[in-house]
Specification:
The complex is a heterodimer of chains A (391) and B (225). Chain A is α+β, with helices and mostly antiparallel strands. Chain A is 57% helix and 18% strand. Chain B has helices at 44-51, 74-84, 100-111, 115-128, 144-157, 174-189, 201-204; strands at residues 2-13, 16-28, 33-37, 59-64, 67-68, 85-88, 162-166, 193-198, 209-214, 217-223. By secondary structure, chain B is α/β, with parallel strands linked by helices. The chains are: A alpha+beta (391), B alpha/beta (225).
C-alpha cells in the first residue's frame, strides 16, 4: 500500500470528525504553544542581554574596588600606570565614576546619567562619537570641563541646533560640548543614549568623591584575557593586601553564567510544557482507543478483503500522527504569535530558533507515534470474524 | 480448487467444547457452482470462514488451489483473501464513508497496485455490474440491490478465482435478489468457482451441486457432481 494513499485516508477520516479531532489536538496545541512561546521569550531576552554585554566592548574585564577589609587604596593613576607597564596583555584601562547630574541648556533642564572616564573608554567600552571629537589625554590631565553627550540629550536639549561647541551647565558648572556619542540603543529616556560623559578627573571634583570604584580593562586578545586578569589580581592584592577589597571579573564569565541560568530556565519551563504534551498524548491515545472500538466493523471488512496487520496498524498510526502533527504545527504558530505579542509588550524581539521549532514538531510527531501505537496495534490484532460480527 | 480433509473446529464455551466442525471433508472442483445449505447452528458459517481463509481450523487440512493453507499465519491468510477469494456478504459490508468506486478500489489498494491501475480495474468492475453511473455515490445513497452489486464489483476487482457468497440475497427484496443471482450465474459462466451459502432451497437449487451440512459434517451431497 502506498504512503500517499494512507495519508489521504487518514485526512479523510479526521475530516469526518472535526470537533473530535480539534479537541484531541487541543492538548498538543497548548503543549507545543507553551514550549514555543516560553522558549522564544527566554531566547529573545538572552539574546538581548548578550548583545548589550557585547556592545560594551570586547575582551572586557571589570574591576570593582569595594574597599572592604583594607585601609589602603589604589589611585586611578597607579592602575593606569600598571596597565601601561603590562601592555603585552592589557590594551587599556578606563576608570569609571558614575552618578546622576542635571544638565541645563538655555532654559531646558534634564536629569541624566553622568559618567566620568578617560580617553581609553572609546576602545575599551566600544563607544565612539558621531560628531565632534573624543577626549584626549590633555583633557584628562588638565581637568577640562568638556562633555560628550548621548543622542537622547542632544535631541532633547538642542533639537535641531548643532550641540558641538555649545556650553551647557552640569550641576551648575559650565561645560563645553565637544562631541556627540554614537547611538547605542534607541535614543529614548533611560536608554544607553541618555547620558553625558566627562573626564574622570573633572568628575571626581564635581561629585566631591575622589575614590573611583569601577575600572574597565580591555585585554589585548581573547587569549590573553585570563593572563590579564591574573596580573591585575596580583597587583591589586599587593596594593590592598586583602582579597575582599576588590573584585575582578570578565565579560566571558558573565556571558557564561547568564547562559547557564537561561539554559536551566529553558529546561525547567520546557519540562513543564513537556508534561502538558504528555497529557495531550494521553488524550490522543484515549480518542484513538474509542475510534478503534467504534470502527471494529470497518477493520473487520478491511481485513476480510485482504488488509494485512501492518496496513491496519499503519492506518491508525498515521491517523494519530497526523492529528498530533497538525496540533504541533498549530501550536508552533500559536506559540510564535504569543511570543511576538508578549515580546512587543516587554520590548524583546522574541522569535524561536529553527532548532526549537524543529524539536517541537518532531516531539509532537513522536507523541503521536508513542501514544498511537497501542490503539493501532490493538486494531491490527483484531480477529476479522469477530470484528465482522460487531454491529 | 478446494479440498478439505477431516477438519475440526472446536470452540470452548466455558467448560464445554463445542464442535462447530466435526471432521468435515469436502471437495470442490475448479469452475464449479456449489451451494452449501444447512440450518442455523449447523456449522455452515464456520465452514464458510474456513473456506474464505478468515479462520484457521483446530485440526484437519485445507488445500486451496493445491496449496495447504490451514497452518498459515494472519498476514499470509490476508494475502490469500486478497488475491484468491472474493467475498459477498448478506449485509454487503461496504465502508459507509467511502464512495462506491473507493469501496471497489480497496482490495486493489491492499494489493499494492499503482494509482492508475487501481482506478482502471475498479471502473471496469463497477461497469460490469451495471453501476457505471454510480461511481461517486456513498452506500447510503444506493438501494440494497445496488449496494450488493457494489459488493460484487469489489469481490471481482482483484480478479479472484473463487467467489464466496454468504446469503447474498438474504437482505434483498425478491426482484433485486433475482438480479443478484443472475449476476452470480454470469460469473460462473465466465469461469469463476462459486460457493454459495444459503438456507433457501430455491436459491440452492440454482447451483450445480448442493452440499448439506448438519452438526458440523456433510450429511448429503446432491446434483451433477
Amino acid at each position: 500500500m502506498k504512503w500517499l494513499q494512507s495519508f489521504r485516508m487518514a485526512f479523510k477520516s479526521i475530516a469526518g470528525n472535526k470537533i473530535r479531532a480539534t479537541l484531541t489536538m487541543l492538548g498538543i496545541i497548548i503543549g507545543v504553544g507553551a514550549v514555543i512561546g516560553m522558549v522564544s521569550l527566554i531566547e529573545g531576552a538572552t539574546r538581548q542581554i548578550k548583545d548589550t554585554l557585547q556592545g560594551m566592548g570586547t575582551n572586557l574585564i571589570s574591576i570593582n574596588v569595594l574597599g572592604r577589609g583594607s585601609t589602603r587604596t589604589a589611585t586611578a593613576e597607579e592602575i593606569i600606570e600598571f596597565a601601561e607597564t603590562n601592555s603585552d596583555v592589557i590594551e587599556g584601562v578606563a576608570p569609571l565614576i558614575s552618578g546622576t547630574a542635571t544638565v541645563k541648556y538655555g532654559n531646558k533642564n534634564l536629569s541624566t546619567n553622568l559618567e566620568g572616564t578617560n580617553e581609553a573608554y572609546r576602545t575599551v567600552r566600544n563607544t565612539d562619537i558621531q560628531e565632534g571629537r573624543f577626549f584626549n589625554a590633555l583633557d584628562i590631565e588638565r581637568r577640562q570641563k568638556v562633555v560628550l553627550i548621548g543622542t537622547y540629550i542632544s535631541q532633547e536639549l538642542f533639537g535641531n541646533t548643532d550641540p558641538v561647541g555649545q556650553n551647557v551647565k552640569i550641576n551648575g558648572e559650565i561645560f563645553k560640548v565637544i562631541g556627540i556619542l554614537e547611538t547605542k540603543s534607541n535614543s529614548t529616556a533611560q536608554s544607553g543614549d541618555d547620558k553625558v560623559i566627562i573626564p574622570y578627573t573633572t568628575a571626581s571634583r564635581l561629585q566631591r568623591n575622589s575614590q573611583i570604584r569601577t575600572y574597565y580593562v580591555q585585554g589585548k586578545t581573547p587569549e590573553t584575557v585570563d593572563r590579564a586578569m591574573q596580573v591585575l589580581e596580583a597587583f591589586l592584592f599587593k596594593k590592598f593586601n586583602s582579597t575582599s577589597a576588590y573584585r575582578v571579573f570578565n565579560q566571558a564569565d558573565m556571558l557564561e553564567s547568564i547562559s547557564e541560568t537561561t539554559k536551566m530556565l529553558t529546561m525547567m519551563l520546557g519540562g513543564i510544557a513537556g508534561i502538558s504534551l504528555l497529557v495531550g498524548g494521553i488524550g490522543i491515545m484515549n480518542i484513538m482507543l474509542v475510534t478503534v472500538s467504534e470502527r471494529t466493523r470497518e477493520i473487520g471488512i478491511r481485513k476480510a478483503i485482504g488488509a494485512k496487520r501492518r496496513n491496519i496498524l499503519g492506518q491508525f498510526l498515521i491517523e494519530a500522527v497526523v492529528v498530533s502533527c497538525i496540533g504541533g504545527i498549530i501550536g508552533i504558530l500559536l506559540g510564535m504569535a504569543l511570543a511576538n505579542g508578549i515580546g512587543k509588550l516587554i520590548q524583546i524581539s522574541a522569535s524561536p530558533s529553527f532548532d526549537t521549532v524543529l524539536m517541537s514538531f518532531l516531539f509532537s510527531a513522536f507523541v503521536g507515534i508513542f501514544f498511537g501505537w497501542y490503539p493501532a496495534n490493538k486494531a491490527s490484532k483484531l480477529n476479522p470474524i469477530e470484528a465482522l460480527r460487531v454491529e | 480448487m478446494i479440498r478439505i480433509e477431516n477438519m475440526y473446529k472446536i470452540y470452548r464455551m466455558g467448560t464445554n467444547d463445542v464442535y462447530a466442525l466435526n471432521g468435515i471433508s469436502l471437495h470442490i472442483k475448479p469452475k464449479e457452482f456449489v451451494a452449501i445449505v444447512g440450518p442455523s447452528g449447523s456449522g455452515k458459517s464456520t465452514l464458510m470462514n474456513m473456506i474464505g481463509c478468515l479462520d484457521t481450523p483446530t485440526s484437519g487440512k485445507y488445500f486451496l488451489d493445491g496449496k495447504e493453507v490451514s497452518k498459515l499465519k494472519d498476514d499470509a491468510l490476508a494475502d490469500i483473501r486478497n488475491k484468491k477469494v472474493g467475498f459477498v456478504f448478506q449485509t454487503f459490508n461496504l465502508l459507509p464513508k467511502l464512495t462506491a468506486l473507493e469501496n471497489v478500489e480497496l482490495p486493489l489498494v491492499y494489493m499494492g497496485l499503482g494509482r492508475k491501475e487501481i482506478h482502471k480495474l475498479a471502473v471496469e468492475a463497477l461497469e460490469k455490474v451495471g453501476l457505471g453511473d454510480r461511481f461517486h455515490h456513498k452506500p447510503s445513497e444506493l438501494s440494497g440491490g445496488q449496494q450488493q452489486r457494489v459488493a460484487i464489483a469489489r469481490a471481482l476487482s482483484s480478479r479472484p478465482s473463487l467467489i464466496l457468497a454468504d446469503e447474498p440475497t438474504g437482505a434483498l427484496d425478491s426482484k433485486s435478489g433475482e438480479e443478484i443471482m443472475q449476476m452470480i450465474h454470469e460469473l460462473h459462466k465466465e469461469g469463476k468457482t462459486i460457493v454459495l451459502i444459503t438456507h433457501e432451497n430455491d436459491i440452492a437449487n440454482q447451483a450445480e451441486r448442493i452440499i448439506r451440512i448438519h452438526d458440523g459434517i456433510v450429511v448429503e451431497e446432491s446434483g451433477v457432481a
